Amino acid sequence: MSGLKSNLQESDSEDEPEFLQYKLVILGDGTVGKTSLCVRLCESEFQMKYKQTIGLDFFVKRLELPNNTHVALQIWDIGGQSIGSKMLSTYIYGADAVLLVYDITNYQSFVNLEEWYQVVKDTFKSSTLPYIALMGNKTDLFHMQAVKMEKHNAMADQNSLYSYLVSAKTGDQVFNTFFRISADLSGVVLTTEQVEASQPILRPEVVNYSNTSSHETPQASSASNIPTTQPQPRAEKPQSAVPVSKPPPPPAPAKKKKCLIF
Ligand SMILES: Nc1nc2c(ncn2[C@@H]2O[C@H](COP(=O)(O)OP(=O)(O)OP(=O)(O)O)[C@@H](O)[C@H]2O)c(=O)[nH]1
Ligand SMILES: [Mg+2]
User: Fold this and answer.
1) Which residue's CA lies nearest to atom 32 of ligand 1?
2) Which of 20, 63, 235, 254 is deepest in the core (most CB within 10 A)?
3) Which atom of ligand 1 is nearest the CA belonging to 213?
4) pLDDT at position 25
5) What is the pLDDT of residue 233?
6) How many angstroms is it from 241 CA to the middle of ligand 2?
7) Domains and CATH numbers, the chain
């Protein structure tokens, strides 16, 4: 009996590792780079060739946070064609976090996030919404930016969304964004140094643009969307510490879940 008691006391100890699991759902139009983000995060790779996700795909990413906290992210990569599917709400159901991803060079993919976001709100109805982030991908194509940062920031602010800019191609901000999301979900407070240290060193890649396919150089949806002025100061720093805009208040009580997939 005393052995049991001491074991219980030990498991409450601060030094004891904690294993947590979260369901993270990635939504957004086709070709915005959802699968590429998952592959970059989980396999440290990037494919130029587009392979459409039919239905959905799964990825698992394990991260170690400070304070001996181990997180397993169970990532649901939803195909962009699922927007009209009756299954979509089922996929979103029970998510701890939802990433609304758009392509910064494709204005329509940003506009269409309203529709994806609406499905999330409809799925959770009156219950508390999960952690939701607005994520602009393809920052390596910043020179072809079609979504003004004012628009990005306005959507994030108006809906109290977390806000990130990443590049699945170069890997810029990918790992530390997911590191930060994991910490936010777990209630672990990170210093800027810890976030920056979490980003692996990225090897520069020489790109032969004469061989690039249409997917590598998507066109801005209309000339009027191409920014004519410099982005706002905070928007000019997509390479800096994530998130790019002031985060909304922390999501309703950080959910701690015992992990089943370690
Ligand atoms: N330049 C650039 N291209 C990218 C980036 N991320 C993805 N791509 C390219 O964009 C295309 C679409 O990427 P996917 O990851 O398959 O897009 P998806 O959102 O999963 O698309 P669906 O499966 O149809 O929903 C591919 O050709 C990728 O190589 C990026 O950060 N930069
Ligand atoms: Mg995909």
Assistant:
1) 138
2) 20
3) 27
4) 98
5) 31
6) 26
7) 22-202 (3.40.50.300)
